[in-house]
Structures are given as C-alpha cells and as structure tokens.
Amino acid sequence: MRTGKDPDSSNPNSSNIDIPLEILKDRTLSPMEAVVEYLKEQCRYSYHGIGILLNRDERNIWTIYQRAKKKRQHEKKEAEEEAEKEAEEKSAKQEGI
Prior knowledge:
97 residues; elongated
C-alpha cells in the first residue's frame, strides 16, 4: 500500500508542481536534498512519487532524504550546543560580578 501523493505518470501535467526557491537558500543541504525534503515533508509525496517526479529510483530518493535528515539533526545539535555554551558563559559572567 502506498501512502502520500503519487503523480499520475499518464498525465504530463501532473508533474508540474511549484517548488519555492527559498528552500535552496539554506546551504546546509544540496539542491537535490532540499527538493526531496520539501516534497516529502511539505507536499507529503511518497518516495516512489518523488522518484517519478525527479526521474530517480525510489531507493535513491530514500537515501537522499535520510542524508538530509541526518544533516538537519546535526545542525540542530550544533545549535543546541552553541546555545548551551552561551548560557554557561552568561552565567559565569554574572557570578564573576
């Protein structure tokens, strides 16, 4: 059973979707990772549907999506560590006053 939207390959207009350019501004992800992430999370396409749209095997789409998720998790972890470090520095300054 498939979930999400799958484009109808018999309808040539079904592959016309709008992808906002803003998703490419974040240089953390490659353009392909950003597009796959957008289609999977925002448009709720299945790996199979994204593969049809991008003319890629769905296994490759899965790999690209997993790599994008891993990069996002790493980015989030770094941001949390930075915030924690800043809080510790602020606390140390207040104690030194």
